[in-house]
């Protein structure tokens, strides 16, 4: 077999065929159980009916013996009447007479003393299995072959002493003899009824299985028509035109939920594709600006080398190169954040200590600003220390670029949360842009433009880092400047454990 050829399996690939096969198998198991129960019940009921007929026949035989009447040979059930002190049977019929009646009886005579019953009690009989012996003088002809088989046998005893002498003589027994009437319960009727019932059940079961499988097949086929329509419409969705949506059935069943989910997924993909296209366009635009400045500066310097201020040209080239490097690093970090799951590094981090160290070490030589951290109490969270430092530095960078005189960092505990705020006294952000500032490469008005050295990705990176640590980053309203609020799950300090 070719290694690339798919393996053939007996299980069908079609959902319709699988449903039909599963329904047929399930129905077969259920029908088999029902058929077995019906078989047992029919056989039991038929056996009880045969035994009841034998009991009635035994009662008639006992009545005939008590009346001194020898039963006739003609009988629907096999019977034999034997007596002590007599070699041959008193009477036999129903197949037991196929044995040579002139020789000796087939079934045994009573042994032991006769046990009379209470006169007030009704007559009684005994049931036990007996084996019919195989004898040379037996010729069943075309009837049921009794010889060699073991059958349930009903029998009852009659004492000749309780009969008159005339009745005993009519029966051909002595006055002290004990007569025993046997009736054999044959299984052929019960077995025949059971076989007939089994045949009917088998045919009905096979027809039922075919009908059940066909009903399941066509039912699933009809039920899957909306799914096929969804598949066709979904297949028509292309990257160039991702706005196609599937039709939601009005039935309200699971397929409607599937269609709704697919539409929501297509909408998310459409939004993600639009964001990606916008991101690529914005990234290209942001890269073009420093590249154009760098290229223009170098081309002018090369065109007029004798009149070029080479230290200034090198300074401009270095500044634009650093800007390109920062932008490339931010883009790579965003790409990593988009593909990584929430952080699993659970190192304890003191945000107060981190914010204080950042405020002390942050370079402010270029502008006369004041950067302070007003908190001293420990505020512990869990996560990656490097990512927390990047988050805080991005917030501080943004505040420093737009502050007029002062940037203030505050850290406090609120129940099970640690709240860190970075507040600057700059021009602030309009209320309608409180969420747009966290989008990538979003340009606001000139008052908070990115021409001061930012890449336009700092706040987007900060919010992604906050979400990775199960926190939130929002812009809270202030009358002066902008205030960014970071909320993170609080971790117990070592003294609280």
UniProtKB/TrEMBL annotation:
It comes from the Bacteria. Residues 282-492 form the Histidine kinase domain. PROSITE patterns: HAMP, HIS_KIN. It is found in: Cell membrane. The chain crosses the membrane at residues 20-38, 200-220. Keywords: Kinase, Membrane, Phosphoprotein, Transferase, Transmembrane, Transmembrane helix, Two-component regulatory system. One of its GO terms (molecular function) is phosphorelay sensor kinase activity. GO terms for cellular component: plasma membrane. It catalyses: ATP + protein L-histidine = ADP + protein N-phospho-L-histidine. InterPro entries: HAMP_dom (IPR003660), HATPase_C_sf (IPR036890), HATPase_dom (IPR003594), His_kinase_dom (IPR005467), HisK_dim/P_dom (IPR003661), HisK_dim/P_sf (IPR036097), Sig_transdc_His_kin-like_C (IPR004358), TCS_sensor_his_kinase (IPR050428). Its main location: membrane. Its EC number is 2.7.13.3. Residues 221-274 form the HAMP domain. It is an enzyme of class 2 (transferase). Pfam families: HATPase_c, HisKA. This is histidine kinase.
């Amino acid at each position: 077999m070719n290694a690339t050829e798919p393996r053939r399996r007996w299980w069908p690939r079609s959902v319709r065929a699988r449903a039909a096969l599963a329904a047929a198998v399930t129905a077969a198991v259920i029908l088999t159980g029902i058929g077995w129960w019906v078989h047992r019940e029919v056989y039991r009921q038929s056996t009880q009916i045969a035994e009841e007929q034998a009991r009635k026949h035994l009662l008639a035989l006992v009545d005939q013996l008590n009346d001194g009447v020898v039963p006739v040979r003609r009988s629907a059930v096999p019977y034999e009447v034997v007596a002590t002190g007599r070699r041959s049977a008193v009477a036999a019929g129903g197949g037991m007479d196929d044995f040579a009646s002139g020789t000796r009886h087939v079934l045994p005579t009573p042994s032991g003393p006769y046990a009379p019953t209470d006169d007030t009690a009704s007559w009684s009989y005994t049931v036990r299995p007996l084996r019919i012996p195989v004898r040379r003088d037996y010729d069943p002809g075309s009837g049921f072959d009794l010889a060699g088989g073991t059958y349930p046998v009903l029998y009852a005893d009659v004492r000749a002493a309780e009969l008159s002498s005339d009745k005993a003589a009519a029966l051909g027994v002595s006055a002290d003899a004990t007569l025993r009437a046997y009736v054999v319960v044959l299984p052929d009727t019960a077995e025949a009824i059971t076989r007939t019932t089994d045949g009917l059940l088998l045919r009905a079961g096979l027809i039922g299985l075919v009908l059940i499988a066909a009903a399941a097949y066509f039912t699933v086929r009809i039920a899957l028509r909306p799914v096929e329509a969804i598949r066709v419409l979904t297949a028509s969705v292309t990257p160039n035109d991702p706005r196609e949506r599937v039709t939601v059935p009005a039935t309200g069943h699971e397929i409607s939920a599937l269609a709704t989910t697919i539409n929501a997924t297509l909408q998310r993909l459409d939004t993600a594709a639009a964001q990606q296209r916008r991101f690529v366009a914005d990234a290209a635009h942001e890269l073009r600006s420093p590249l154009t400045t760098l290229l223009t500066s170098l081309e002018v310097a090369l065109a007029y080398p004798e009149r070029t201020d080479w230290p200034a040209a090198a300074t401009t080239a270095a500044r634009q190169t650093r800007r390109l490097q920062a932008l490339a690093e931010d883009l790579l970090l965003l790409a990593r954040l988009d593909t990584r799951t929430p952080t699993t590094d659970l190192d304890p981090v003191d945000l107060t200590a981190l914010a204080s160290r950042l405020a002390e070490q942050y370079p402010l030589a270029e502008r006369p600003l004041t950067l302070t951290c007003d908190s001293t109490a420990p505020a512990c969270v869990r996560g990656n220390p490097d990512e927390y430092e990047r988050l805080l530095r991005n917030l501080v960078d943004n505040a420093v670029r737009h502050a007029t005189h002062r940037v203030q960092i505050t850290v406090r505990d609120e129940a099970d949360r640690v709240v860190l705020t970075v507040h600057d006294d700059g021009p602030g952000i309009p209320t309608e842009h409180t969420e747009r500032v966290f989008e990538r490469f979003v340009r606001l008005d000139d008052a908070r433009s990115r021409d001061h050295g930012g890449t336009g990705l700092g706040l987007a990176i900060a919010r992604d880092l906050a979400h990775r640590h199960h926190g939130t980053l929002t812009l809270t309203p202030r009358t002066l400047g902008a205030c960014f609020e970071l909320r993170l799950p609080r971790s117990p300090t070592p003294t609280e454990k």
